[in-house]
Amino acid sequence: MRPTNPTSRRQSRAPLRYLYIGCALTIIAIVSIVTFLLVREHDSAERSAARSANNIVQLINLDVQRNVDLYDQSIKALIEATQHPDFQRIPQSLRYRVLFDAAITGPFRGDILWLSPAGDIIADSHSYPPRQANFSDRPNFQYLRDHPDAGLEISAPFHDRIGNLGWCISFSRRISSPNGQFLGVASGALQLAYFAGLFKSLTIGKDSNVNLISEQGLFLAREPQVPGQDLIGQDFSQRPNFQRVVREGSGSFVSTSSLDNKERLYTFAKVGQLPFVVIVALSTEEVYAPWRRTVAFVGTATALLCLALLWLCLMMGRELRRRLSAERELATLASTDSLTGLANRRSLDRTLRTEWARTQRSGKPLSVLMIDVDHFKAFNERHGHPGGDKALQQVAKVIAGCVRRPADLVARYGGEEFMVVLAETDLNGALIIAETIRNAVEHQPPYGDDATPVTVSVGVGTHRSRCGLKLEDLLASADLALYQAKDNGRNQVGFSEERLYKSNDRS
């Protein structure tokens, strides 16, 4: 029976385990670092796009604020002129120039009107004499009429009713007498096409858009426009994205558009103190396109690197397994008898020292069996060395089959002699095993044309914990018992425990 050493096997596998663990940790580290860098790059791409969009928002805010201020200045100039003490003494032909000399002109800028307390047009920047129309039904006119302390009032989007300006918004102020009496309204109209023209001059990328919405959620302008839809004047106040814009005031977020269900990066801000919100919606496909190309390149390179590292690890593991296997084979050869396959003398000596030290610590018994093949020299002369070798191999196989505990050791002691080390086994147990071996060998079929089978003699030596006993005394006891068995006729079991202890007592 060959000894097995689980600790040695675990230790021999440790380098291979460390190699695989190291390889796995290296791959995990590489993937983690690359993932971290790609996530950071993703955030950087989003922040960069948000900064660019915010710059666009600020440019739009400045332009819109400037135009609204110009309108307000024109309206204030009209009001100041109407309230001048000498205004009524100015000839009718000069009043038009006095009223509208400060009025702004240019593309998409509409008319400036002076409305009477009844809502009729008193003066018109686009026509002299003024056009005929009444605006008393307009909400902003009614609000200014009813609120003496109102400031600049900006209307909801409306279609121009006296010209061809299309969609407009108006900027209006109340005209009051010194004692607060309502004298009418000064109002200027701005075409919403102005915002579309402003937005067209901006480069924002494919599938992106710029929007202007009032704080009440009314849509004012968008570029590019949605094909087949006129969004101006539609109420977006209940849309989730707009509610978030109103709630946060300014900033950026990624969300899905309620118009076309596409994901976009929304950057938004309020236009100064005006009731307008500018929203730049950039397509995330465009925003993250460079990042996705980076992910594809870096991901492929990382995957190839990890595969190469894994392949190298597997190759090294295979070579290490071969090396460990060769080392185990060498260790086995160094501790195994080449003829019988049992442990050799070197392994036997090591095991005896180990078990002797253990029994000295634990106080448990230790037994050894010394086994010798009977009349082996005569057998060798009859059958030659090849026959003798086969007989020894058969005997070794039988002995190993009778010793089943992993902790026990069966070894070739030398020539035709064998030894069995029985850990934690007393004399009675050792005698049973010895008799089992003797009987099993005797009942093997005869070799060749021999009439008698091969037999063995067994000597048993047992140690109990006693002060002063040495390992050599135990081996001498087993050897003495073997010679007694041979002297008594061979093919039997002998033991010399009594003599052993008497010798020990004398010491």
Mean pLDDT: 86
Global geometry: rod-shaped
**First and last CA, distance:** 36 Å
Structural class: alpha+beta
If you consult CATH, what is the topology of one domain?
A: Alpha-Beta Plaits
CATH superfamily of one domain: Reverse transcriptase/Diguanylate cyclase domain
Major sheet details: 6 strands, antiparallel
Radius of gyration: 54 Å
CATH top level label of one domain: Alpha Beta
Total beta strand runs = 16
- What ranges have pLDDT less than 50 throughout 5 or more consecutive residues? 498-507
Order of helices and strands: HHEEHEEEEHEEHEEEHHHEHEEHEHEH
Helix proportion range:
40-55%
Structural description of this entry:
- The protein has 507 residues and is an alpha+beta fold.
- Among the domains are: 195-286, 2-Layer Sandwich (Beta-Lactamase), CATH 3.30.450; 336-506, Reverse transcriptase/Diguanylate cyclase domain (Alpha-Beta Plaits), CATH 3.30.70.
- It has twelve helices and 16 strands.
- Strands 1, 2, 3, 4, 5 and 6 form a six-stranded antiparallel β-sheet that branches. A five-stranded antiparallel β-sheet has the order 8-7-11-10-9, with helices on both faces. The protein has a five-stranded mixed β-sheet with strand order 13-14-12-15-16, with helices on both faces.
- Helix 9 packs across helix 10.
- The model is unreliable at 498-507 (pLDDT under 50).
